[in-house]
Amino acid sequence: MSGKLSTHVLDTVHGCPAQSVKLELWAIADDTDHSQGQNKVLLKTLYTNQDGRTDELLLNDTEIKIGIYEICFYVSDYFAKFPDCANPTNSKINFLGQIPIRFGITDASDRYHVPLLVSPWSYSTYRGS
């Protein structure tokens, strides 16, 4: 089996895939000192398509390595497009702006899927298949 990393973003307010969500994939060089990202290396910047997925894998079988990674999802930009999700105080600050999800890859030959289910006020994730 070839290893890979993928993602999927679902808009739980509108009940649909979240299209055109910017996301960044970061490699965390060493998280043992809890340096809060000082050792982060940007690997890719991608956008979700009409199915809420990226057109290419986050990491394919030649790119995936054992280590700590983070996907940062820019959800405030996505929800700003919808009047029903507007910030009621008309502030430039949203409750959820960027959502970083940090996770570990322990087997480079395995398949990893990190879905994001999101609204302007909450989110959840899990290890998918």
UniProtKB/TrEMBL annotation:
GO MF, one annotated term: hydroxyisourate hydrolase activity
E.C. no: 3.5.2.17
Family annotation (InterPro entries): Hydroxyisourate_hydrolase (IPR014306), Transthyretin/HIU_hydrolase_d (IPR023416), Transthyretin/HIU_hydrolase_sf (IPR036817), Transthyretin_CS (IPR023419)
PROSITE patterns for this protein: TRANSTHYRETIN_2 (PS00769)
Record domain Transthyretin/hydroxyisourate hydrolase: where: 5-128
Reaction(s) catalysed by this chain's protein: 5-hydroxyisourate + H2O = 5-hydroxy-2-oxo-4-ureido-2,5-dihydro-1H-imidazole-5-carboxylate + H(+)
GO biological process per UniProt: purine nucleobase metabolic process
Keyword Hydrolase found: yes
UniProt KW keywords: Hydrolase, Purine metabolism
Top EC class of this enzyme: hydrolase
Source organism, top-level taxon: Bacteria
Assigned protein family: Belongs to the transthyretin family. 5-hydroxyisourate hydrolase subfamily.
Subunit structure: Homotetramer.
Function summary: Catalyzes the hydrolysis of 5-hydroxyisourate (HIU) to 2-oxo-4-hydroxy-4-carboxy-5-ureidoimidazoline (OHCU).
Protein name: 5-hydroxyisourate hydrolase
Species assigned in the record: Pseudanabaena cinerea FACHB-1277
Chain's gene name: uraH
